[in-house]
Design a protein that fits this description.
5 helices, single chain, two-stranded antiparallel ribbon, alpha/beta, 7 strands, disordered C terminus
Length: 150
């Protein structure tokens, strides 16, 4: 069964469900968006698994070189990579049977999003999970693609 792309219910389910999130492209640099978002999610009770082949630990957690190296199940792959780098991540997410492929703000690759959805993954594209959480925490509704481009 095909997955969805930018479905509001999927966004709300991810945010309310406290899933296990692999942060692909995670950085140990505190000024990087991936570090800020991972720290925010961890502070809200999410299990964060950093993924970056150039790092060994981020935010006190073991960092894995690839999504497929992460032990156990991954519910959400939260991607902080260039749009042209998404293909191999989609391949890995499909093989790993990730439920949701979340492409952060500015990470737009329609073809790869469609390929992931056709393989059964729900896809959230060009949205920031932190911003979506903040909107829900403040009582605002989740809107499709309302963020300005970075």
């Amino acid at each position: 069964m095909p997955g969805t792309i930018n479905d509001k219910e999927v966004i709300e389910k991810v945010i309310s469900g406290k899933p296990r999130v692999a942060v692909i492209g995670a950085s140990s640099k505190p000024d990087r968006a991936s570090n800020v978002v991972a720290g925010f999610l961890a502070s809200r009770g999410f299990e964060i698994v950093p993924v970056n082949p150039k790092e060994s630990q981020i935010l006190g957690r073991t960092c894995y070189p690839s999504l497929e190296d992460v032990p156990g199940l991954v519910d959400v792959a939260d991607v902080f990579r260039k749009p042209e780098d998404i293909g191999p991540i989609v391949d890995a997410a499909i093989r790993k049977q990730v439920s949701v492929l979340w492409l952060q703000l500015g990470v737009i690759n329609e073809a790869e999003a469609r390929r992931a959805a056709d393989a059964g993954l729900d896809v959230v594209m060009d949205h920031c999970i932190k911003r979506e959480m903040e909107k829900i925490e403040t009582g605002a509704s989740v809107q499709e693609n309302e963020h300005p481009k970075p």
